[in-house]
Amino acid sequence: MKRLVVLGGGESGVGTALLAKKEGYEVFVSDKGKITDKYKKVLINNEINWEEEKHTEDLILNADLVMKSPGIPEKVAIVQQLFAKGVKVISEIEFASEYTDSNIIGITGSNGKTTTATWTNFILKNGGLSVALAGNIGDSFAKAVLNKSAEHYVLELSSFQLDGVEDFRPHIAVLTNITPDHLDRYEYKYENYIASKFRITKNQTENDYFIYDADNPTIAEWLSNNKIKAKKLPLTFKNEVQEGAFLDKNNNIIVRIEDKEFIMAKEEIALKGEHNTKNAMAASTVAQLLKIRKQTIRESLGSFQGVEHRLEKVLKINNVQYINDSKATNINATYYALDSVSAETIWIVGGVDKGNKYEELLSLVNEKVKAIICLGVDNARIKEVFSNCVEHLVETQSMKEAVDFANHLSEKGDTVLLSPACASFDLFQNYEDRGRQFKEYVRSL
Q1: Is 345 annotated as a binding residue?
Q2: Is 100 labelled a binding residue?
Q3: Looking at residue 9, which CATH number applies to its domain?
Q4: pLDDT for 305-337, tens place per residue?
Q5: Does 290 lie in the same domain as 217?
Q6: Per-residue exposure over 135-144, b if at least 16 CB sit within 10 Å of its own CB, e if not
Q7: Domain hosting residue 192, numbered range
Q8: pLDDT score for 190
Q9: Strand, coil or helix: what is 125?
Q10: Residue at a domain's end among 90, 106, 141
């Protein structure tokens, strides 16, 4: 019996453990931190051996195969020891893909991947397909495969998940954009992060499709220097394309696939902002490829409600709009957020900085932001860049304190925007926890 060791006892780790057990592996789960009660129960009920708060070398280094959860960097000692022994270390996405024949739509990008994946899933469901959303959102892919939940999987894929990919091959791959992010995991080398994103297409063949933002300079440059086998379907605002999606001079989205055209006015799309127009183009291109009726695509683009923690309007209190954009964990996402607000803004920012170039936000901050509330353990860089831009810059150490300050500083007609541009791990469990706390304290004002 082959021995699979799973590093990390979270959603992807436990999903992999369950699938591996069903496929006849001897399974052991090891987590350097604590495993939550929810996942412990699952492991115990399924008689899977596990340990927490340690990695016991004798129980790990004898593995035939190791699945490393995406949150664990390759540089940690136990992973380096596995490499030295020649043990194969893969990602959950790689492992699970071997056990399904379903059609896979893989979606990645620095920003927009959650919205695009959720929107794509929404359209395909409305079109009557058997479809499930998994990966970096909702259930792990392994759990979805274990439950044989669908004929089509829409997978949101992070760069960390793609790092452990060897044979994984989505039939349709989407790359929403690439901007610097997570550089702390890539030796602060942008080219390493870019290579990671393009792993989504590395095993695709001439029979597969690669949908990408042709206006993104990083993507355009990589494609001009590297060949891919998949059929390229660009998304662009700049010029007409024979196949792919573009914006015409009347502001209509036009999607062209194999001589068939889908046309819809940009203003009829439910989510506003240029980035959401691109997300809509990507989702509707996938839908066209899968032969969803045009009427269904049109209705789905016009009625989609968006994603929790992404420019989510929480409440209006005394004519002040509170917006939760906790999912903005990098500069580019926060750029979109600030760009999308028109009112005077009180901006809540900060957390774990991944090598942010805050200077890229200066023009928008000067134009729109009247007060900055720092929410992080270390706010030195934020203060250094923005202290001369605004009248009020305060530091806080809890969400309650940040929301109370925002309430105090805001006036009628203002917007309070939580768009941290940083990871959340200094003060919160994750970006969801950060966003939910924001909503909770806003509602209790």
Answers
A1: no
A2: no
A3: 3.40.50.720
A4: 888 898 999 999 999 999 999 999 989 899 989
A5: yes
A6: bbbbbbbbbb
A7: 95-303
A8: 87
A9: helix
A10: 90
